[in-house]
Amino acid sequence: MQGLNLYSKIEKDLDFQKEVEELYDAFLQICEELEVKKVIDIGCGQGEFLLSLEVAGIEAFGTDLSSEQIKVCRGKGLNVECIDIGEITAKYECATAIFDVLNYMDKVTLEKFVQDSYNLLDEKGYFIFDINTLYGFEEVAQGSLNINKANKYIGIDAFFEDKKLITNIVLFSQNENGLYTKEQDFITQYYHEKNAIKKLLTKSGFEIKQIINFHLHSEEKADKLIFICQKP
């Protein structure tokens, strides 16, 4: 997916670890309350949630479309594949998609993704995911970030317009000869209205059990919604 391999190279340098852990803890708590034992984490990133699941005694499998992220996961000994979920034939008690996974998809891609997620699940299986609210995009995600380190420079510039967040990324990395190489790419995220997601889930066959207003970056308003859905 556009820009995600470059993002994987800078993710560890971004100061989001507290927020990452908070969201993963919320999802883990939901999984434990639902007593699921076999989970597929879609868009698993560098595998931190997979590790949390394993520590909790839950069988975990992860997928990601970024080959760089999958390399990191395999280095941790995790069970992962760089594969589209539409190609998976195994069934799971629960599918999770955490930290903006659905926001990386346009409307057409999202419709297929939700249906593919439904097909992954056992009967009575759960689909749990988060999406960014409009407040999350307009007031939290927009802006610029510059990081200077001894051997690298990272520049991030994000702007929200026409229901899309465009995040431009520039990375300068110093090699062993002291010279710098430049990498540049961008990521597009899409704002999906709550009611539109509800209609899509119902159309795909899901029952919506709960929608949680989640305050990840701000106490003022919810910047995320967590959906807990079930396959009948």
Description of the structure:
The structure is a single chain. The protein has two domains: 169 residues, Vaccinia Virus protein VP39 (Rossmann fold); 54 residues, S-adenosyl-L-methionine-dependent methyltransferases (N-terminal domain of TfIIb), CATH 2.20.25.110. The protein is globular. 32% of the residues are buried. It has 232 residues and is an alpha/beta fold. The strands form two sheets. It has a seven-stranded mixed sheet, with helices on both faces. The protein has a four-stranded antiparallel sheet with strand order 6-7-8-9, covered by helices on one side. It is built from seven helices and eleven strands. Strand 7 and strand 8 form a beta hairpin.
Characteristics of this structure?
N-terminal domain of TfIIb; 7 helices; single chain; Rossmann fold; 32% helix; alpha/beta; 232 residues; 7-stranded mixed beta sheet
